[in-house]
Amino acid sequence: MSVTDMQNVDINRLSVNPHNAEFFLRESDAYFERLTEDIRKRGILVPLLAKKDGTLLAGHNRLAVAQAIGLKYVPVQYVTEELSAEAEQEFIIKDNLLRRQFSQEEWTAIYRKLVPDFEEILMRDGRGKHRGKGISQANLEQNTHDTHAQNDKKDNVFFNAKTATTKDMVTFLAKETGEKTATVEKRIQRAKSKQQKDDSVQKNVEVASSDSKKDNVLSSISALKKECKMLLNNCNDAKLLAKVQKILRQ
Questions:
Q1: Model pTM?
Q2: Residue 195 and residue 120 in contact, taking contact as beta carbons nearer than 8 Å
Q3: What would the pLDDT profile of 128-157 be if each residue is shown by its tens digit?
Q4: Of 109 and 235, which is predicted with more confidence?
Q5: Which domains does the chain have, with CATH numbers?
Q6: What residue ranges in 23-148 does DSSP mark as E strands?
């Protein structure tokens, strides 16, 4: 990726990238306090990176601090080439991943953003094999064609969420995030275990709720029978008495 020399740019000419907020949560207040103190003392040492139109690719936190403390200009380098939407998203993701430490929950959230069918693929099976015959050659060729139509990068990992296995998803996420396959696989397994545990808890809650409803119904029926018996004790109609007693025995 080719960039211009560093320039001091009016911060009003820069704008945040929606992909950044879409994929990543805001840093903690403690982080911003440390960053603010450092920028007050030393200024912004690493230039922000932006597209030609001023949309940031890297440096969102530095820009936020600059705005907060009243800086008028910040150092910026501009990317000289046009980026596809996929390439722009990929750059933002990898830049953030290199700079931050994420929890398992945050990693899972990132994976869900990159693969909207994350849970569906995750729960297909535990062996990394799609039910049936897996990804057919026809599906692979069609997916390859569709992917090339969207992205001309030669190193692109062809991925079809509708036919992908867990193993396919691991390979795709490793490429998209720049992480090792083994690392992504471990996180995927943790996410799957948590999902199974959550499903088990939910099922137990539903069973308990169902049992409770049954108990309430049985209790109501029992109370109703008792009340009926009390009324029958004062009933002088023999036929009605026999009919109701038959019903109560059912």
A1: 0.48
A2: no
A3: 444 443 444 444 444 444 444 444 443 445
A4: 109
A5: 7-87 (3.90.1530.10), 102-200 (no CATH)
A6: 48-50, 56-58, 73-78
Task: Write the Ramachandran bin of 28: left for phi over 0, alpha for psi from -120 to 50, otherwise beta.
Answer: beta
Q: Is the pLDDT of residue 63 over 70?
A: yes
Which residue reads 């911060």 in tokens? 11
3-state secondary structure of 147: helix
Q: Count other Cβ atoms within 10 Å, centred on residue 39.
A: 19
Specify whether the CB–CB gap between 74 and 8 falls below 8 A. Answer: yes
> Residue 206's pLDDT is what?
64
- Residue 217 buriedness (CB in 10 A; 0-12 / 13-18 / 19+): exposed
139 vs 127: CA distance, rounded Å: 21
Q: How far apart are CA 121 and CA 168, in angstroms?
A: 9
Query: Cα-Cα-Cα-Cα dihedral of 21, 27, 32, 35, to 10°?
Result: -90
- How do residues 179-225 score in pLDDT, each as one tens digit? 788 988 888 888 888 877 777 777 766 666 666 676 677 677 777 77
SS3 assignment, position 19? helix
Retrieve residue 36's tokens: 């603010």
